[in-house]
Known about the structure:
The structure is a homodimer.
Chain A: E1 17-22, H1 37-40, H2 44-52, E2 54-59, H3 69-76, H4 88-95, E3 105-114, E4 120-122, H5 130-143, E5 146-147, E6 150-156, E7 161-167, H6 197-216, E8 225-233, H7 240-244, E9 248-251, H8 255-263, E10 267-268, H9 275-284, E11 291-296, H10 298-304, H11 308-320, H12 322-327, E12 332-336, E13 353-359, E14 381-384, H13 388-395
Parallel strand pairs in A: 1-11, 1-12, 2-14, 9-10, 9-11
Antiparallel strand pairs in A: 2-13, 3-4, 3-7, 3-8, 5-6, 6-7, 12-13
Amino acid sequence: MAGMDLRPLLQDNGSKIILYVWDGLGGIGAGPEGKTELQAARTPNADRLASQGTCGLLEPVYPGVTPGSGPGHLGLFGYDPVEYQIGRGALEAVGVGFDFRPGDVAARLNFCTLDSKGAIKDRRAGRIPTDESKRVVARLAEAVKEVDGVEVLWAPVKEHRALLVLRGEGLGDGLEDTDPQKEGVPPLEVRAASGAKANVQTAKTVQKVLAKAMKAIADEKKANGILARGFAKRPQWPSFQERFGLHAAVAAGTPMYRGVARLVGMDALEATNEIANDVASVAAAWEGYDFFFLHYKHTDKAGEDGDFDAKVHYIEEADSAIPALEKLGPAVLIVTADHSTPSAMKAHSWHPVPVLLAAETARRDGLSEFNEIACLRGGLGLRPSTHLMPLALAHAGRLAKFGA
Amino acid sequence: MAGMDLRPLLQDNGSKIILYVWDGLGGIGAGPEGKTELQAARTPNADRLASQGTCGLLEPVYPGVTPGSGPGHLGLFGYDPVEYQIGRGALEAVGVGFDFRPGDVAARLNFCTLDSKGAIKDRRAGRIPTDESKRVVARLAEAVKEVDGVEVLWAPVKEHRALLVLRGEGLGDGLEDTDPQKEGVPPLEVRAASGAKANVQTAKTVQKVLAKAMKAIADEKKANGILARGFAKRPQWPSFQERFGLHAAVAAGTPMYRGVARLVGMDALEATNEIANDVASVAAAWEGYDFFFLHYKHTDKAGEDGDFDAKVHYIEEADSAIPALEKLGPAVLIVTADHSTPSAMKAHSWHPVPVLLAAETARRDGLSEFNEIACLRGGLGLRPSTHLMPLALAHAGRLAKFGA
């Protein structure tokens, strides 16, 4: 279901909203003491806000469905992730700040190491540092600029990752990945996912592009091969501004999160994944926007590493930034997550994420702590994450009465 | 909403799921002590699982809608009962293990007692025992084998109930019941529910079938009349295997529940409604399946009888079977119900049913008992029963991440 169209109700009262996402925040409490990371952490600021605001739990995509980073955030932004699907290449392109235009086709590249027979020895090329990757990408950009009349663009991302963008008329993005997902075999040929002419033609072009590219870097010790994944065009979605009447900015140090925010039309602020820096970015841009999406990455990383204590530590660090955000005077300050990443599972999970919404208009629900279990008794209940944006707008006084 | 298509996310990790249904489990606590049957019962095993797993409440069909046995189970199986509707005749046919083929039309029959003027004296023929019913069905099978070129098949069910199946070309199942739902009047004529030719033609044939049949058993003392209900074809639905990637089996001693499970493609195991026997059936088939639906009937019967104490007793019996199920080592063990049957109401009801999901990946929600009231604070919240299957798959590690 696409949800209710809120546009007729929107009113601009000049109020501001901060969405502060602690990536992968949710846990499952499967450890010996049965606590989640958030329960174990000291979060005096979030606890205080919980006692003044209202809490609950958000289900990111669909019951039982574990979200990737894109869908997890889209839900928080009010875009049903099942309806608004996006390829990894497109997300990456927008994420690195690439001038990704309608009609372009992007793919995410992983440099890999090939042996003398062309079989994959290391799918991540020894996770070469970003600087080395930049050097190799520069070689590619020099060697492969145009194939079959299609412009070929290359950009470094991080470590062994890079971006390929094709620009031309009538390109198709229905192409399959060339990553065989295992070592000891060569990269796959580029195949069209359907018989559509645009796909078939583009597959041929990409095959030539990759062959030419690998020839150009054949003398590299580590990054002498390329795997391409997630071919995609830029989706054409109604913007955050159109849907919610909010001029929005993102402060996220990681390209992926910046990318998904830009896909809905948010402006990217300078960000480094140092929370004090990123909060300062929000503060510096305060007058220019209605809505700020501030992303805190380290909690997710610790969860994926299976490091309970580190996740607790980073939750506490994220909490410590709250007073600086309050000082800016937002009408609504939200703390939540894009998905759970329980350290016991070392991976994203489907478990609902805790949400805290602080606003003068919030109904006090009697909670005095912010965690997954307390939130079960919170005033927002358990609901799809797509409900968050309407609630944020309402608490900010930005939604007029419906009906006479 | 039809729900999210999970097929692209399915992954087979060899894990197993048990769905243990305590039929009619939910109560309303309307008695003097204000307890539900489940609150009053001693359920040490379910309570222990609740403390290790996660709980909640499921709404079977739609808020306020009281489910019959078919819809109640379909929701648990992940088939929206409003979307997947099925006639009682079809359910009965599959339930008794009848070779019910696409195109066949089935009806559920009740033997009744007619007086000398042909009016109904007893709508259930004194609830004649199954053996007597079998004898009468054998007479019918001998007397009425074909009408209007349509093959006519008969099967006994239980007590005064039987099954009629028509097999032929172009049959319609849009036929109205012949049961007037009261005594002192004759059975109704068979009427087509619409003017569609297949229905009109089939109505004529069935009228002849029933007339011929009642003539053949006119000398019976009790079962000398027939009431036909729920004319239906076998629905053609996507199977449980197709939708969820699970090879599934049912252990249910009552034909109705076996029937609904078979309609979604589950294999029927031997079952007798003796819980130790039915658990042993599951154990014996353990290696052959991914998913087991184990049905416990007696709780519902006690509720319908308005017998609070008996329902408590049977809940305790159902609970006692849990350790044997745990010993099999399922990744996910679910205890729940198809609907509530409060003994105070002596009938099925619409009240949400408690659900308990035990799995290593379950978020501990701090509950230490399993009942309708404790479950209000459970981690699964209150949700439609169609959410159960996605959650079961997720907790079993059978759903891959959605999106990048």
